[in-house]
Amino acid sequence: MAHVPQWVRDLKPSGPQGSEILAQERDGSAVNVEQLKTFLFGQEALQRKQKVLKVLQSEKVFEKSQDYFEGRTDKFERALARAKKLRQLTVKHGWNDTEQRAANDLISEPLPYGLHEGMYLKTLRDQGTPEQHEKYLKHAEAYQHIGCYAQTELGHGSNVRGLETTATWNSDDKTFTIHSPHLTASKWWIGSLGKMANHASVMAQLIIDGKSYGPHPFVVQIRDLKTHELLPNVYAGDIGPKFGYNTMDNGFLLFNHVKVPHVAMLARFSAVDPKTNRYLKPSSPTLVYGTLTWVRSTIVLQSGSVLARGVTIATRYLAVRRQFQDRDAPEWQLGENQTLNYTMVQIRLLPLLATCFALHFTGKGMMALYEANQKKMSQRSSKDQQELRGAGPEETQSGSDLLADLHGTSCGLKSLCSQTAAEGLEACRRAMGGHGYSAFSGVGHWFLDYVPTCTWEGDNYMLTQQVARYLLKSARSVLKGNEPNNDTTEILAHYLKRQDVGAAFDILGKDEDIVAAYAWRSAYFIFEALRQRDELKQSWNSLLVQFYKLSRAHSQYLVVKNFYETLQSPSISSELDPETLTLLHKLFRLYALHTLESESSEFFTSSACTVSQIRLARTKAVMQLLEEIRPHAIRLVDSWDFPDFQLNSSLGRYDGKVYEDMFYRASELNPLNRITVDPYPESATLFKKDESRNLKGKL
Amino acid sequence: MAHVPQWVRDLKPSGPQGSEILAQERDGSAVNVEQLKTFLFGQEALQRKQKVLKVLQSEKVFEKSQDYFEGRTDKFERALARAKKLRQLTVKHGWNDTEQRAANDLISEPLPYGLHEGMYLKTLRDQGTPEQHEKYLKHAEAYQHIGCYAQTELGHGSNVRGLETTATWNSDDKTFTIHSPHLTASKWWIGSLGKMANHASVMAQLIIDGKSYGPHPFVVQIRDLKTHELLPNVYAGDIGPKFGYNTMDNGFLLFNHVKVPHVAMLARFSAVDPKTNRYLKPSSPTLVYGTLTWVRSTIVLQSGSVLARGVTIATRYLAVRRQFQDRDAPEWQLGENQTLNYTMVQIRLLPLLATCFALHFTGKGMMALYEANQKKMSQRSSKDQQELRGAGPEETQSGSDLLADLHGTSCGLKSLCSQTAAEGLEACRRAMGGHGYSAFSGVGHWFLDYVPTCTWEGDNYMLTQQVARYLLKSARSVLKGNEPNNDTTEILAHYLKRQDVGAAFDILGKDEDIVAAYAWRSAYFIFEALRQRDELKQSWNSLLVQFYKLSRAHSQYLVVKNFYETLQSPSISSELDPETLTLLHKLFRLYALHTLESESSEFFTSSACTVSQIRLARTKAVMQLLEEIRPHAIRLVDSWDFPDFQLNSSLGRYDGKVYEDMFYRASELNPLNRITVDPYPESATLFKKDESRNLKGKL
């Protein structure tokens, strides 16, 4: 089978060739790809990517041709080899964090050191004392300790306060006993734990003298540093295959009365005083809290590129793919139509293309907000810090408005943006028809590896309660007559001023009115929810669905606003050609009007738009925008700058050689084609010949 | 690792136990599960399932414990073993088609004989002459020939007329030459072809004397009957891994001028006369056409059960899962709340539960329509048959109205129902939070194996053009003043009569008014689209998005109508207890009002409802229904009668032992836990110990 006959090798796809089509597409648009690329990511990041890419491509282990064929164990084995090599290269080339992240993006699969690097090191750094840095961090940074962050349990995910693992203080010998009282206390889903870690940062209920003080982090060794076997009274392993993310060894972990020394409790913010045996209160929970906000902001920042990867693949393939003639085409127009020319394909794909830009600019805005707040926070007086002490995010007072704003914004946007990216990827895959189902499309596995983002770092539905709490609090403040002190309170105050006059937004005529309509709809539903909670005294549980919609509405407003403001930046006309800038304006309108239409009932209900405006948006404006953006689709996706190495996709190849690549992978790379079956039901033999098993060694 | 320490074995989940919770749920509802089961499926089918289940469970090869761990080749090997065993059992027990289908449902994975049984045999039976039955069908039925149905190509899927493979008639030696002129002519996605088939029914462009007569089916042998090696000038293999469906050997196939005899062209409906070398026209394309309709009707019929499987798993798990306390709960109410009690979970899950019933009853309605039409068709005079000759479905005249109605209905419902089921499954998976990502949830792989249904047998988006064509034609007929002769023309005529009076539907008060509101919205958009096409002369391409929405609107009307009519059946009160029947009425309202709300902008625009009605539906009626249905959720899913064997799910276990099963599969069945890694980046060793490879033999 490995032998492909010459007559097969001589075959070409029927013309025109994919490469010709994409070349023509690129000729037909004046979008300045280099400029737009630089506008999106900056020169520095683009160069960094090229540098790292060159190194990775010279290493055989990063060659991806077998990735789609492997079972779980082989997949993990290869990922382990890659993780090791990547670490060696990082040391060799002296790569910093940003360069390492660039390499991870290019490799594009979760690697088994991921949680050691992402969470174990971070927890030690942020929450450890100098003594603990010496004892644990030093070894972890040298990869002598491989660690993980063991928080969620079989029985508890979102509800961290409900964790069952205990850490009981033994005042006699100044130790803690880490214990799993039930099966549901088993740590679960912990990345890098299943096979890799010899240490874990374990979140456990601190118990002193019979009293519980809530979850705290403890460093526990779980495997022997030499044999890598489990230590006595520790039981851990991999939790098994998953929907995606199978190159990661997500693990479980149980303890049977394991003693750890006093130093094991990470003590930067709270501790047990070994002399008095008393608990020392956390000095600033808001700092810890800031970590989660940072993680969520990063998710928002990445969502645009995550989606752009699927959109790039689908757009290129659907330009190359030709099917049917246009029904109304004149007779002289021979040949089949590019599928990207059908409006039903455009309406599924081009708004997603616009969404990539919307999410990307929102991510940048979110990061800027985060950094501005970090700066202000660190400038705050110690008096302010005192005020914060002991207060959770929902109860923070005026002194911490900034933090509350950042928290609400990051929760809402994390929920909306990750959801949008995940669902968009699946829409891209399905828009590609039959070939979208092939692993070689490169979109399926990318979706599967990404979709857990909807659930981790705060479940996308759960998070909307945090957003609602923040919005209701803002509305209460405005109703009390407090001066608006941020964007949220400003749009609420504006709404109150105008509510007896009503809205009159020219959504089809003016871009700023689109933003205003989104703000109006958000404010309307915030006050509506407030009325139900505060006046009608409806139960929290009965309002959850409304809270979800509220969070979505407000976050969509933020996305539209961020996109709009990016285009208003004074320097933009010096960075982009007029054609490219005009096109970005069209993408803004496409995102905003298409989203408005799909949420139209809320825009009606809040009287932010009329029925007639929505109908016009749907039947005229959006269709017109599709037509205007269509010729630039290929150049627009080129601007996202995904190397073929990263995409690992037959359908998304830059050169358009879609069919040749599909065929090559199926016929020559596919291990199943190295077996010959015995197809008859009565015979007990399954395989007459099997050369697939020794394939691994050969490649 | 295989050794689980005793202290781990002794652990139990923290209380209350899943089994206690589910028992309590079942005690708390009076739904008569046995009755409802029988109402849904009939006594006969339920007994058949139990009989077949018993046989399958006694065979080791059908034991599913390793299914989630395997790579592609192992997966396929196991599926092959199962396919053979199933065939042997079918022969041994003399199972008929229905029993075989029941077995396939229980095994729940695509088996490699699937397309031999589903399509090759059917094509030979339907399109072969008696001579061809003797030459091909006989051997195929005896599994000496294993066949496949080779239609789609690398370059062509939906557009069958564009296929590139040619079958050129050689008048000199009375043979056909089958040839693949380009790489894109390669047959692709063909089930049972990659490894299994030794014969293929190949769709190829018939060419006689330089003239093309369109695609026709030819039987071609492709592999040696003894060695199973490819025959000369044939190149075929497996197309590689896919998003799902990996137990099937979807294949590719190329021909290099392969000669086949005259008898190879399936000649029941059209043929080449070997004496005159002339083409003999098809006598009745509508019969062939009926096959596709039957396949689509089957998809509609199955969609309810397909979705119910995910809903069953999610409902049971979310009843067992407890997380957080209710914020407004009184202090004395200790412990965490069942996640199924949160309205945000209910709104995602319970409308899907209602949807299962809606789809199931619609599927039954669709099948009844199909059978009624088959009966009428066969009663038709030969004069009618003559009329049909040579006419495609879109141009059929009044004599074939029935067929057009059936075609439009089956296309629209196939598109809506498969989309709804696929998206619903993913919603179920995601509603389960973190554990939904585990393969052991049993929903992920089920979704992946099902989702191609959205694309095959007519892409869900493409199909809506067929529906629109049918609806526009119906509207033209009504406008001409023709008497309504079916439900579609009736609702259109009714709309015309009332359009100057407007609608006044009491959707919250009367069930029949809900149905009427759906009919009104559909009729409104049909006439709207007709105006744009016929009066404003808009291009077909510019209307595709509207056509899609139109098809969706009309199909949703059909679903609501079918559900409503099922509940109006005179015998129903003798079949179901009053409580159970009342609950079905509530499920009807939940499906109809929830769908209405999510499509509300179309109901506004068409003036079928007021803004205020929709708001009330959303904030009152739907929330009230969730509360009323919630206590019966477990019994309602029990009624779908899925044995644990079929579900193969930790989270969906009938007995609620969710955590025990997750833990057992992860710790004891998971091959990755039979390896010990070397975790340090500098060391070249990956695995210190690897006992996973010989696991296969052991199990």
Question: Overview of this structure, please?
Answer:
Two copies of one chain form a homodimer. With 699 residues, chain A is an alpha+beta fold. Chain A folds into three domains: 6-113, Acyl-CoA dehydrogenase/oxidase, N-terminal domain (Butyryl-Coa Dehydrogenase, subunit A, domain 1), CATH 1.10.540; 118-282, Butyryl-CoA Dehydrogenase, subunit A, domain 2; 289-637, Butyryl-CoA Dehydrogenase, subunit A, domain 3 (Up-down Bundle). Chain A contains 25 helices and 13 strands. In chain A, strands 1, 2, 3, 5, 6 and 9 form a six-stranded mixed beta sheet that branches. In chain A, helix 16 runs antiparallel to helix 17. The two termini of chain A are 16 Å apart. In chain A, 53% of the residues are buried. At the A-B interface, helix 5, strand 7, helix 10, helix 12 and helix 17 of A face helix 5, strand 7, helix 10, helix 12 and helix 17 of B. Chains A, B: The active site is at residue 457. Chains A, B: Residues 512-679 form the Acyl-CoA oxidase C-terminal domain.
Compile the SSE list and pairings.
2 copies of one chain form a homodimer.
Chain A: H1 6-9, H2 18-27, H3 33-41, H4 43-57, H5 72-93, H6 97-107, H7 114-127, H8 130-141, E1 149-150, E2 166-170, E3 175-179, E4 187-190, E5 199-208, E6 211-221, E7 234-238, E8 251-255, E9 258-261, E10 271-273, E11 278-280, H9 285-320, H10 343-379, H11 382-388, H12 401-431, H13 444-450, H14 463-479, H15 487-498, H16 511-535, H17 544-568, H18 572-575, H19 578-598, H20 600-605, H21 611-629, H22 633-638, H23 644-647, H24 658-669, E12 675-677, E13 687-690, H25 695-698
Parallel strand pairs in A: 1-5, 2-5
Antiparallel strand pairs in A: 2-3, 3-9, 4-8, 5-6, 7-8, 10-11, 12-13
Helix pairs in contact in A: 3-4, 4-6, 7-8, 9-10, 9-12, 10-12, 10-17, 10-19, 10-21, 12-13, 12-14, 12-17, 14-15, 14-16, 14-17, 16-17, 16-19, 17-19, 19-21
